[in-house]
Amino acid sequence: MHCPFCRHTDSRVIDSRTADDGLSIRRRRQCPECGRRFTTTETASLTVIKRSGVVEPFSREKVMSGVRKACQGRPVTEADLAVLAQQVEESVRSSGIAQFDANEIGLAILPHLRKLDEVAYLRFASVYQAFESLADFDEAIAELREHPEVQPNPASIIPTPSQE
C-alpha cells in the first residue's frame, strides 16, 4: 500500500476492524517514511461477465434496477429492493466464487424475489428461465402452489468451485 502523502511503497497496519456492512475491512495504517496515518477500506471484489463478454464489477444498483422492472405496479418498496439486492450479494459472496455470468446473478435473484412477491417472481423468472409458452407459466405457478414457502438456497443456483 502506497502512502497517499509521500508515496512511500510500504505502510504498517496499526488497527483492523470489520466495517459496518461486514463485507469490508477498515484498516488504520502508518507510513514508516513520513509517519503520517491514513485509513483504507478493503473489500473482496465480485465481477460479472455479461453476455457480450464484458467484465464489470457486481452492482447492487443493477440488481435493484432489473428487479424494479419486474415489481412495477406491485406493493414493493425501494427499501424492499435494497434488502433483496443485499441478500443476493450475500448469497453470491457465500459461494466463494469471485466471477459470475450475468445469467447466474439473475438466477440467484429468483428465490429472494419469490419470497418478496410472487407476481414479480413470475415476471422475472419468465426472462431468466427463458419461458417459451403458457405451459412454462403453468409449471411455475403449479410449483408456487405446491411449495408456497420456499427458502432461498443459493447453493442450488450458483455453482460451487467443484461444479465448474
Automatic annotation (TrEMBL):
Annotated zinc fingers (unnamed), start-end: 3-34
GO molecular function: ATP binding; DNA binding; zinc ion binding
Entry note: cofactor: Binds 1 zinc ion.
Record InterPro entries: ATP-cone_dom (IPR005144), NrdR-like_N (IPR055173), RNR_NrdR-like (IPR003796)
Pfam families the UniProt entry points to: ATP-cone, Zn_ribbon_NrdR
Alphabetical keyword list: ATP-binding, DNA-binding, Metal-binding, Nucleotide-binding, Repressor, Transcription, Transcription regulation, Zinc, Zinc-finger
First and last residue of the signal peptide: none
Positions of the ATP-cone domain: 46-136
Entry similarity comment: Belongs to the NrdR family.
Function: Negatively regulates transcription of bacterial ribonucleotide reductase nrd genes and operons by binding to NrdR-boxes.
Name the UniProt record assigns to this protein: Transcriptional repressor NrdR
Species of provenance: Leucobacter luti
